[in-house]
Amino acid sequence: MANIMTSNTASTEGKKRRLRGGGRYGSLGDRVFDTCNIIFMLLLMVVTLYPFVNTLAVSLNNATDSIRGGIYLWPREFTLQNYSYVFNEATILGATFISIMRTVIGTIVTVFCSAMVAYTISRPDFVLRKFITIAFILTMYFNGGLIPNFLLIRDLGMINSFWVYIIPGIIGVFNLIIIRSFIEGLPESILESARIDGAGDFTTFAKIVLPLSLPVLATVALFTAVWQWNSWFDVFLYNSSEIKLSTLQYELQKILQNSNASMSAKSAGDAFANADNANANMVTPFSIRATMTIVASVPIILVYPFLQKYFVKGMTVGGVKG
Predict the structure, then answer these.
(1) Could you tell me if 115 and 217 are in contact, meaning their C-beta atoms sit under 8 angstroms apart?
(2) Between vectors from CA 12 to CA 10 and to CA 15, what angle results, nearest 5°?
(3) How far apart are CA 224 and CA 132, in angstroms?
């Protein structure tokens, strides 16, 4: 008897689910929504990827031929001349090394120091946490200006120094707020258990908070790495006279300026008219910009897949509290 009642109940529940779901494949509205959603996501993917693919095609196309336009997804006259022109510069390899070093060191130091400060101001028993938080936030809206910043860097003795890339941005306020919000969402009972076991603040931070905060730290690390990798204006301000401290982005900017200067006496029409002569393989500012975009973007694109799962979780969880 009990088996019959159980079977009838299961059959009734199955009928109810089929009625609510509109059959095996869901209701007509669900199927329409799924179809529209898939079409929209495909269009969004195309719109997102097309500019990058087009830029890649231009960078791999003959420079003077690119002036004609009409290049979309595939180079019309394939060549590596643009990349050869960029990487034949004597300073590129050294500048790439400096860019990698400032990105790695700057990211590690910034994330660790920002996490320490965020943990400190997230503690309810820290008396000055509101005052310090407000002081940090004010720096997001008010700045001393370019000249006072330059004078400060000069007085600190960081002109023509590698550490000018690291120390001035060692605490990012935006990153600080994100990490603090994430830490405030951690279970307080875990931190209390660590204190009861005799752990100090730094031990609690290093062995409890940091491992639990890996998603938000990966998010902040990605933000910081992109900023460090793409930064070039600080090189121009503080280290432009020190070639061995130049970065890849700054050297690419100089290559683009040299390309613009070399084309100043020759219009795009002249370059196209002479496309069949010995200058057919010359570079143009248009092709150099495309090549620079690819060279600067590829390292970040290669790193992002390894941080994607942490990036999504860190943004959703770390942005809950303000």
Answers:
(1) yes
(2) 110
(3) 22
Fold held by 85-318: MetI-like fold (1.10.3720)
pLDDT of residue 315: 54
pLDDT tens column, 192-232: 888 888 888 888 898 889 988 888 898 899 889 989 998 98
Strand partners, 78: 61
The residue ranges of every structural domain in the chain are 2-59, 85-318
**Tokens 């002081």 — which residue?**
135
Report the 3 state secondary structure along the chain: CHHHHHHHHHHHHHHHHHHHHCCCCCCHHHHHHHHHHHHHHHHHHHHHHHHHHHHHHHHCECHHHHCCCCCCCCCCCECCHHHHHHHCCCCHHHHHHHHHHHHHHHHHHHHHHHHHHHHHHHCCCCCCHHHHHHHHHHCCCCCCCHHHHHHHHHHCCCCCCHHHHCCCCCCCHHHHHHHHHHHHCCCHHHHHHHHHCCCCHHHHHHHHHHHHCHHHHHHHHHHHHHHHHHCCHHHHHHCCCCHHHCCHHHHHHHHHHHHHHHHCCCCHHHHHHCCCCHHHHCCCHHHHHHHHHHHHHHHHHHHHHHHHHHHHHHHHHHCCCC
What pLDDT does 155 receive? 92
CA–CA separation, 174 vs 262, rounded Å? Answer: 41
Rounded-to-integer distance, Cα 255 and Cα 160, Å: 21
Residues of the chain with pLDDT below 70 are: 1-26, 261-282, 310-322
* Residue-level pLDDT at 320: 46
